[in-house]
Write a structure and sequence with these properties.
The strands form two sheets. Strands 1-2-3-4-5-8-9-10-11-12-13 form an eleven-stranded mixed beta sheet. It has a two-stranded antiparallel sheet with strand order 6-7. It is built from ten helices and 13 strands. It has two domains: 55 residues, DNA polymerase, domain 1; 276 residues, TIM Barrel (Alpha-Beta Barrel). With 371 residues, it is α/β, with parallel strands linked by helices. It is elongated, with a radius of gyration of 21 Å.
Length: 371
Amino acid sequence: MTHSNKTIGHEVTIGKPSLKGLDVDQLASALAPFGKRAFHARQIMAWFYRRGVSDFAQMTDLSAPLRATLAAHFAPDELAVAAEKRSRDGTRKLLFHARDGEAIESVLIPGKNRGSRDGEAEDDRLTACLSSQAGCKLKCGFCATGSLGFSRDLTPGEIVDQLFHLQALAGQERITNVVFMGMGEPFLNYANALAAARLINSHLGFNLGARHITFSTAGIVPGILKLAREPEQFKLAISLNAPDDVLRDRIMPVNRKYPLKELLAAARRYADERGKLVFFEYVLLGGVNDSQEHARQLASLLAGFPGKINLIVYNQYGPGDEFRAPAPRDVERFFRTVSGLFPRVTMRHSKGQDIQAACGQLKALHQTPSR
């Protein structure tokens, strides 16, 4: 299948609040001024998250007066789908416009998105990659989103609505995994990202198991420590990308605030308190962090750590990009060296490269609507 682009003419309703992103108690409170009770909130949530319906007129188990009240006072969506891109490998990327015109991107990834180098084969997972911010503050050198600058945090409703629209795009195929690996740093929008994750996990929401929801951080230590104390069994991934502070300072400025010793101490605490592996994402940058010495340093840095290393080949996102992918021979050598020294190493197949949906490439290239 060749990739295709599709523009979708649909706009959010300006001026009315949306009910998406609210838990059942918050939704009941929003309905209380209209004399509605908690069971109405549960009915609406079932339409949103179990049936994938946001048009109040289609919520047929609600009374006609209630449907009219909802339509008069609330908007059905937080986000408008502005465009869709489909990759040759089946990956799909959606561009959304928020109410204030901010552009947000999300990705739907088929298959496991992992190589089979550790004996694991492709399976029938369908992963939603969600954004938590419009832009990003961290300015990691290899990440397209960082070049956008930072606009604002996304609300829980805007985060959840991405999943709503991605599930509609998937049709009858159920989304099985959610990763907070899109635009932005989820731990710099911790409360909103956590609220969204809890709604995704809730039996009244998308009812997705906590072990199928992953927070990916560039290394925000306070967020890691907070996640370790949460009751849900959410997973943790850390974008590592360098085996020493000097190199990590260069490509990930966040390391100057939270250097490797502090970062790994927090990751160890998470692993010890949760009894779970930490996933370390390592993007291979040609001539930067992909040498045999880097491979040995990486294995030494994480020696004895209850974690797994996911190696990812870099994807160039534009002609002005200073980084490049390593040669296939260098990737193979790096993998062999690390996997010979560390027990859990995987080469990930990066998908969606032809539509700029692969790791580090999310960058809204469309014009935002006038405000």
